[in-house]
Amino acid sequence: ERRNSGKHAIFLVCQNNNFDVESANGFIWAPTHIDKGEGEVASHAEMDLVKKGDIIFHHFANHIYAISVAKSDCTLQAAVAGHPDAGKVGRYVELSYHILSTPADTSGLKAEKALYGSMKYGPFTKDGNNKQGFYLSELHDQLATIFIDAAIVANPTDSTLVTLKSHI
What we know:
Elements: E1 10-13, H1 19-25, E2 27-31, H2 42-45, E3 55-60, E4 63-70, E5 75-78, E6 89-105, H3 110-117, E7 136-138, H4 141-154, H5 159-165
Parallel strand pairs: 1-3
Antiparallel strand pairs: 1-7, 2-6, 3-4, 4-6, 5-6
């Protein structure tokens, strides 16, 4: 719907252990198939939807650590050295990361996560908890607004966040 209205899509990514290497090198990456070769993981396949200009919230451990903008559409590319899947070809999106000085705590937003993020391929359960094994999903506009507001409260002097909010 956002693309049809001329707006960029908004996504939530849960990098967890890969955040440091991916943020340091300016990308997100996901395999094209799960290790056992049994097929695709839906939250990895969502990477194919990311287009240049889209906004990505980096969320794990009930905190938003960064908000980025896609510098490219999703392509196939090998993961860089230092990544757990280094050398393996997978889905790759180059990003311009904006690391938050103070990560925004989302642990008190369970009701909002459940309401706006618990759809079939959403990042949260019906109880508002993080889904296990989840990587990337489009983020509902209302939840994106709630998350950017939480980031602004945690980082009140960060003018980049106000600019990003204008694109949500």
